[in-house]
Amino acid sequence: MHALSIDTFEFSRLKERREGETAVAEFTRLSEEVAEPSGTVVWAVEGSTNALGHPQLTLSVKVAVKLMCQRCLTPFAYEIESESVLALAKDDEAADELEARLDDESIDVIVGSKNMNVLELIEDEVLLELPPSPKHPVCPDQVGQDTEAMVSAKRVSPFEVLKNKQ
Ligand SMILES: [Zn+2]
Asked: 31-34 long-range CB contacts below 8 Å, 24 or more apart?
């Protein structure tokens, strides 16, 4: 995977923004979690300062990954589109403190760095959005079964029976 390093604190202070498109196949950990490493992650990262003056990064990712359906064992496209806020702390101790102070489940606190690989954050974000047990909303073979059931119901309909008697 290519590295795209930023100084997280400077990036936030200067309210910088980076965006890009990176092939799923370039993310090693993500590639292992999907049925096939196809598709492209469209991502953006933006630095800012929150109301309390803390530096933070806003990450957004959008991708359709191929996952294996746990019900019918065929791959299907799963759409991910998410945005999350990462508050930056100087070290582990400051991170714990900040987490307690923010008391907000929707904000993750990470330890910032002068040399942070943005693509690793992007990969983490996509990994977090993967469902633990991916399934089609409706499996293709179930659709087949339903159609078959309808056909057999039709076969025994009274109209059919009458028609057969004539
Ligand atoms: Zn399925």
From this structure: 33/127, 33/130, 34/65, 34/66, 34/67
